[in-house]
Amino acid sequence: MKPEPKDLSHYFSELTKARVPSDLKKYYEVFSREGMGNLAGGLPTPNYFPFRTLEATVLTASGLDSSAKSDESRHRQIEVPNRSDEANVLRKVDVSTALQYGTAEGYPSLRHWVRYITRHVVHGHIPYKKGPEVIMTCGNTDGFNKVLQTFTDEWIDGRSPTAERPAILAEAFSYPGALQTALARGMQVVSVDIDECGIVPDALDHVLANWNWNLGRRPHLLYTVAVGQNPTGSVVPTQRKKQIYEICTKYDVIIIEDEPYWFLQYPNAQELNLDSNDDFVMEGDSVRSDSKSGSFPFLQRLAKSYLSIDVEGRVVRLDSFSKTMAPGCRLGWITAQKAIIEKLVLITETSTQQPSGFVQSMVAQLLTGGKKDSDAWNIDGWIQWCENLCNAYQKRMEQMCGILDSGRVNVTTDSHKLSEWSVVRSSAMYDFKWPSGGMFVWVKMNYPTHPLFDEVGEEKLAEALWKYLVEKPYMVAVAPGAMFGSTNSIKKEDGFRYFRLCFAAVEESELRGITRRFCDGVREFWGLKKLPDQESVKLDAFLEPIN
Ligand SMILES: Cc1ncc(COP(=O)(O)O)c(C=O)c1O
């Protein structure tokens, strides 16, 4: 017997508690009775929508596998019709319904599909009674914001009591977009130490066990990116997830699992790391053996979600189409126990209402084809797409890391005029782990090996190097590590040692060349006997919004 999900309503914010379902909902059943002349609803007629159909040229599910077929056969037209005669709303995809006001859970056919793959295909059995529900979102940024609204009251410095200040745990280096959302609500972000496998369980326990209540409430939320962590690229192995989950249970913490990079997992990074770093050991991971994921070898390769060990219903998972389709879709979904989804529905009803009907219907048409469309990707096609996408990004990751690997050691020769001997020294200018997932390589610069280290110090070297790299002839922009520090002290004391390099953004044909330019720039920089004059380069210019 599966356990009931735990009641987490003691964490609902005051606003969440005050939200009540819309009155209209009570009448929906009456409105939808066969033959009802409905003069009650305030809906515009679809006959006056200027958009009659929606069409797009898309890639086929195998379309990213460029070796296979001609360019033409990789493309296909899809069309969302004006009206579909499909009676089952869970299979209906048409302009008249998609562009109409709809339910906050999302466009029924798309939500139904997403719910199915979440509960039965990708994550297998979710261990609490009846399993989770889903709600469509406008991407994980929107999803996270709504989850914070559900579980935290806004806190205003100088006005709200310190004892009530809400706090959220986050990886020491984390995704700044999420941290900013929490900070803007007045929350305290509490950093947890990480290593190559993500959050260190003992460190998490330590923070919670030794909480200083003078700073506010002990954190009741953990924000984590467990796959392809941004910026470090780590994947948390299942065994470690279980330890983290146990600690969260002990201290009654809700886990917010933000997984836009979920399908981009590179398990072979473990071996590649072993080849290049003798000291790197990854904890073992168990092979998935849950329901339908068994029919997809690709899914079996993937690490488990926190959802699959969530006996208490304390995991709120955020998924997004931003990285698997396109960020501009602004489309994703939240998976959580029913009582939490019900609150998220109420928040959605008074904010976004639901993601845009254009996007939902196009994506629904591509994935499900509405009514028996053999051209639709369907579940097999979606998994195939994600696998090809993963392979394509893995190739890029290997290209970048291979070049970074061969460029990391600086070899210098000191020859003595009066002797025929010369001394050859080699030192690593930087270190990095081949990422196990995602889109980023997290490079730690080894400034103590720089000849000017004693004279100018690490921070100055870091700033000078960043400026040196953006100048000709290197012209490489990398993200300064400080941007990702989850607290000001981490930004200041440790952040400057790191750069985040993204292998996803540039053209594949340019990736090697740009990575080589990075390595060349670093090597030349290590050869400098004095820092160049860099007044003209402003570091601030780089700090525009970055994902
Ligand atoms: C960890 C993480 N979460 C969320 C997002 C934003 O996702 P979305 O486009 O779905 O809002 C990003 C984007 O880079 C990210 O790296």
Structure commentary:
This protein has 547 residues and is an alpha/beta fold. It folds into 2 domains: 103-360, Type I PLP-dependent aspartate aminotransferase-like (Major domain) (Aspartate Aminotransferase, domain 2), CATH 3.40.640.10; 394-542, Aspartate Aminotransferase, domain 1, CATH 3.90.1150.10. It has helices at 14-18, 24-31, 95-98, 108-122, 140-151, 176-184, 201-209, 238-250, 269-276, 297-301, 338-349, 357-368, 378-406, 453-456, 458-470, 488-493, 508-526, and strands at residues 54-59, 75-80, 133-137, 167-171, 188-192, 194-195, 198-199, 221-224, 254-258, 315-320, 332-336, 409-415, 422-428, 430-432, 440-445, 479-480, 498-502. The strands form 5 sheets. Strands 3-11-10-9-8-4-5 form a 7-stranded mixed β-sheet, sandwiched between helices. Strands 14-15-17-16 form a 4-stranded antiparallel β-sheet, covered by helices on one side. Strands 1-2 form a two-stranded antiparallel sheet. Helix 5 (140-151) runs parallel beside helix 6. The longest helix has 29 residues, at 378-406. The relative contact order is 0.13. Mean pLDDT is 91; it is low at 277-290. It binds pyridoxal-5'-phosphate. Residues 139-141, 175, 177-178, 225, 230, 258, 260, 320, 322, 327, 332, 547 line the site of pyridoxal-5'-phosphate (PLP).
